[in-house]
Each structure stands twice: as C-alpha cells, then as structure tokens.
Amino acid sequence: MGLFSKGPKGEKCKVCKAILEKREERLYAMPGVYVGHYKEHPHGAWYRDNLVPIDSKAQIPTGIYAARVELFKCPRCGKEKAVVHPFLSVRDSEVTEFPVTLEYLELDAFLGR
Q1: How far apart are CA 83 and CA 102, in angstroms?
Q2: CB 93, CB 36: distance < 8 Å
Q3: In the chain, what are the domain boundaries?
Q4: Which of 14, 78, 80, 98 has its CA 20 to 30 A from that of 89?
Q5: Torsion of Cα atoms, 81 then 72 then 101 then 14, to 10°
C-alpha cells in the first residue's frame, strides 16, 4: 500500500489525510509504444527515459501511445505523487490503459531529481 489513497472527495494523503492539490498536468508522447505493444512500467525511470513532452494531442503520431501526467502535492505535509494516464488516440476519443501511480523514488526518477 502506498502513501496516498483515493477518497470520495479526491486524492487524500495517508500521512495527514489532507486533500491533495493538483498542481499540474502534462502531456507526453510515448515513442516506440505502438498499438498492441503497450506494457505497464511500474518504475519512474522508464517514464523519464521514454516519454517526450508535447504541447497538444495533435502532435501524437497515429498509432502511438501518449500519456497525460497529473502531479499532486499535499498542502499540509508536502508529500508528492504523479499519476500517469496512458492512452491511445482513436479518432476523436481516447482508449485508456490503467493509470500508473509514481511515488517516492519512482516520482523523483520521473521528475529527474
């Protein structure tokens, strides 16, 4: 079990129970991850080394996965986490995979700290 839990009012910090604040949302392409070849990676270093920042969904090549990354921070104790939402753009919709939560060292590796 991780440091954070999802409650009915949003993401909650398990340390101090405060509601986490969403600080930022980023969009990334996942070059090399094609239709039928998606595999979940539980380590932040993989995302750091393989995701490419993009400005809009229009920059995602056809048949390539992308990821929306939400960054959260606890306003009370300062704990952080990121939630990676991998998806494939299909026409005007997104086919999503299970989200991946990065905490502790995985988050630091992803953010390049």
Answers
A1: 6
A2: no
A3: 20-111
A4: 80
A5: 70
